[in-house]
Amino acid sequence: MHYTYIKFENQTYGEKAVSVLSSNGIKASLRRNPNPNHKQGCNFALFVNGNIWDAYDIITRSHIKNLGVESYRDRI
């Protein structure tokens, strides 16, 4: 399966993003990153029901610190 998500170094920034997206009518969920880079902190991943790039733009405009968008594919 293929995942695309927005990365956060900690849970607090991720929860702020979920709240901002919710107020903009976008459903999102925050979970531990399925493919973490431990050099970047705890690594939380925000999964969006809808367009990831629209969500990323809203988060960026809201000045919520993030580590960008990443894709990950499960191995078979």
Largest sheet: 4 strands, antiparallel
How many domain units? 1
> What is the CA-CA span between the terminal residues?
9 Å
Please compute the radius of gyration using only Cα atoms: 12 Å
Strand order, biggest sheet? Answer: 2-3-1-4
CATH class: Alpha Beta
Strand proportion, as a percent range, falls in: 25-35%
Structural class: alpha+beta
- The appropriate CATH architecture is 2-Layer Sandwich
Q: Categorize the overall geometry.
A: globular
Describe the structure.
With 76 residues, the protein is α+β, with helices and mostly antiparallel strands. The protein has one domain: Alpha-Beta Plaits (2-Layer Sandwich), CATH 3.30.70. It is built from two helices and four strands.
List keywords for this structure.
globular, four-stranded antiparallel sheet, 30% helix, single chain, 76 residues, alpha+beta, Alpha-Beta Plaits, 2 helices
Summarize the structure.
The protein is of the alpha+beta class.
Element layout with pairings:
Layout: E1 2-8, H1 11-23, E2 27-32, E3 44-49, H2 52-61, E4 69-73
Antiparallel strand pairs: 1-3, 1-4, 2-3
